[in-house]
Amino acid sequence: MESKERNPDWTRDELILALDLYIRFKGNPPGKTSQEDLMLSQLLNRLGSEFGKPGSKYRNANGVYMKCMNFRRFDPAYKNSGKVGLQRGNKLEEEVWRTFADKPELLREVASAISDHVLNDDSNLAPVDDDEETVEADEGRLLTRVHRHRERSKKIVNKKKDAILKKTGRLACEACDFDFQAAYGARGSGFIEAHHTKPVHTLRPGDKTKLEDLALLCANCHRMVHVRQPWLTVETLRATIKAASEPAAKDTSKGDLAPSPQSAFT
Ligand SMILES: [Zn+2]
Ligand SMILES: [Zn+2]
Predict the structure, then answer these.
(1) Ligand nearest to the Cα of 199, by number
(2) Which of 15, 83, 126, 241 is the most buried (most CB within 10 A)?
(3) Among candidate residues 77, 104, 119, the one where a domain is terminated
C-alpha cells in the first residue's frame, strides 16, 4: 500500500519562492532534475520545519517543478501561444500571481528576504503566539512572524516609549491620538502598542530595530493595520480614520467605505 501521507497545501511563502523561480526563468522553469528545483526543495523543507515537521515527501524537486508549471495557466505569454497550462491548483496561487507577477523586482526582494531568514536560522524566529486577528502579510507568514517578533521586542519598545514620553509628555496613538492614561487613568499609564513600520520584505536577519522604525499605536489602530491584506501604512490608516469620520464622505459613499488601502510597497 502507498503511504497516505498527504502534503499540506502550499503556503503563500512557498508560492512566492516558486513564482520567483518561474519568473526568473521567464516562464520556462528548469526541469525536475535541475539544481534549482533541488535547492528550492531543500529550502522549502527548512522553511516547512519552521512551522512543524514536514514528512519525507514534503516539497520534493518534482513537486517544485509541478508547482512552477502551475503558474503557466495565469501567464499571458503562455496563454497567448494557444496552450493551456495545468488546471489544478488553488486560489492562493492566483493571488500570489496577481500580487507579484508584474513586479519581478519586488518579488525577488521578498523571496530573498524569506530565504535569508530561513538560511540564517534567525534565532529571532521563535514563534510568537498566533494572533487570529492578524492576517498574514502579502509577503507570507515567515516575514509576518519576523514583523510581529520585532515589534514585540520589549527592550526597543520600552526605549521608544521612553523617548516619546520624554519628548511629548504622553503616549498617544500616532494614528488616532488615543491616550490610554487619559482614558483609563493610572491603569492605562505607560500602555500603548508598537508597530514596526518597515515593509516586511526589507527586514533582514540580524537587523537592529531603530526607534524610528517603530510607530506607537493604540490596540484598535494596530488591529486595523493588520486585519486585512494589504496591511496599512500608518499614513493610510490616518487617512482612513479621517475619511470615515467625515459625514459628507459617509453619505455619498454608497458602499464604498474607505479609500482603497495602500500597500506598504506600492
Ligand atoms: Zn489609535
Ligand atoms: Zn504591527
Answers:
(1) 2
(2) 15
(3) 119
pLDDT for 108-150, tens place per residue? Answer: 999 999 999 998 876 556 566 556 667 889 999 999 999 999 9
Number of independent structural domains in the chain: 2
Same domain (yes/no): 151, 242: yes
For residue 64, is it within any domain? yes
- Residue 71: give the domain boundaries: 12-119
Ion ligand 2 — residues with CB under 5 Å?
A: 151, 195
CA of 20 to the centre of ligand 1 (A): 37
- Do residues 160 and 220 both lie within one domain? yes
- From the CA of 225, how far away is ligand 2's center (Å)? 7
This prediction's pTM: 0.82
Distances (CA, A) of 15 to 12, 92, 108, 223, 233: 5, 8, 13, 26, 25
Report CA(181)–ligand 1 centroid distance (Å).
13
